[in-house]
């Protein structure tokens, strides 16, 4: 089969190169044979070598392609990580890749913040999401399939009220830098008002201090995350604050006017909040 295709390719290249002088024609045909042989070899090797993304597939989509589609917001409203991608997401989250990707985001955010000319009135704020942005629920997700299982509000809230979620170190670096620059952090979270005390305790335990506001969702408030969060940002703006930056792990953290002068998306391949 491969040999037949090779002959066909050589024939095609040879006929398309008919305008070239004979010596060049020969070289082109010889090169084509070489390239085709290399291409066949690479193609044949690929399934044997594999890659992280090829370890898990569903519907022919590799897990790294799936993750890219999630981060780029091409994939939306998904409920669970594909079952075959549990290992892939687990390795991504725990193996250093997640931290490295987060570091790039925060490096950009800090470079941007350092370049800002502040008005001096102390009105500049930076909006921080909490879950998977300021605090990590990875201890929970690591024991619940890294997002491959449907969201369970009961067990997740049991974890939240422990108040033991670790800080995300890259985000914390940004948080401290902003305070040093005179930009006030404002937490804006989908966590509800009844979780205020445990959230404050968790944040403090993890070394966060000096935030200007902690905005939580009223209990029973029914709205999409985009409507709720953009509404809260609107209130901030109407109260005279200038939202110079906004960082979150969900697209719903950073979509919906007013978004903030610049938005930053942290990685999160484990869940989607619409
Ligand atoms: C959700 O979590 C609770 C508490 O751990 C558990 O009792 C319940 O069975 C879980 N529900 C499902 C559907 O797994
Ligand atoms: Mg979040």
From TrEMBL:
May function as somatic storage protein during early seedling development. Belongs to the APS1/VSP family. The lineage of its organism: Eukaryota, Viridiplantae, Streptophyta, Embryophyta, Tracheophyta. This is Acid phosphatase. CDD domains: HAD_VSP. GO terms for molecular function: acid phosphatase activity; nutrient reservoir activity. Coiled coil: none annotated. It comes from the Eukaryota. The keyword Glycoprotein applies. Pfam families: Acid_phosphat_B. Keywords: Glycoprotein, Signal, Storage protein. The keyword Thylakoid does not apply. InterPro entries: Acid_phosphat_B-like, Acid_phosphatase_pln, APS1/VSP, HAD-like_sf, HAD_sf. Residues 1-17 form the signal peptide.
């Amino acid at each position: 089969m491969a040999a037949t295709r090779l002959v066909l390719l050589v024939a095609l290249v040879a006929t398309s190169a008919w305008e070239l002088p004979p010596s060049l024609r020969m070289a082109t045909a010889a090169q084509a044979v070489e390239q085709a042989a290399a291409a066949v070899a690479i193609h044949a090797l690929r399934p044997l070598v594999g890659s992280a993304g090829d370890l898990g597939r569903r519907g022919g989509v590799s897990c790294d392609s799936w993750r890219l589609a999630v981060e780029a917001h091409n994939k939306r409203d998904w409920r669970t990580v594909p079952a075959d991608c549990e290992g892939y997401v687990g390795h991504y989250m725990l193996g250093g890749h997640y931290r490295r990707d987060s570091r790039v985001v925060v490096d950009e955010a800090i470079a941007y913040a350092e370049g800002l000319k502040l008005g001096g009135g102390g009105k500049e704020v930076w909006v921080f999401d909490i879950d998977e942005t300021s605090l990590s629920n990875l201890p929970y997700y690591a024991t619940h399939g890294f997002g491959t299982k449907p969201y369970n509000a009961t067990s997740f809230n049991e974890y939240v009220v422990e108040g033991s979620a670790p800080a995300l170190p890259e985000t914390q670096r940004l948080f401290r830098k902003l305070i040093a620059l005179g930009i006030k952090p404002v937490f804006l979270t989908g966590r509800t008002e009844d979780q205020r005390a445990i959230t404050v305790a968790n944040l403090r335990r993890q070394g966060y201090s000096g935030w200007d506001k902690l905005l939580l969702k009223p209990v029973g408030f029914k709205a999409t995350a985009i409507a709720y969060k953009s509404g809260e940002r609107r209130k901030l703006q109407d109260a005279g604050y200038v939202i110079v930056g906004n960082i979150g792990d969900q697209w719903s953290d950073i979509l919906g006017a007013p978004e903030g002068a610049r938005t930053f998306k942290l990685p999160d391949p484990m869940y989607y909040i619409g």
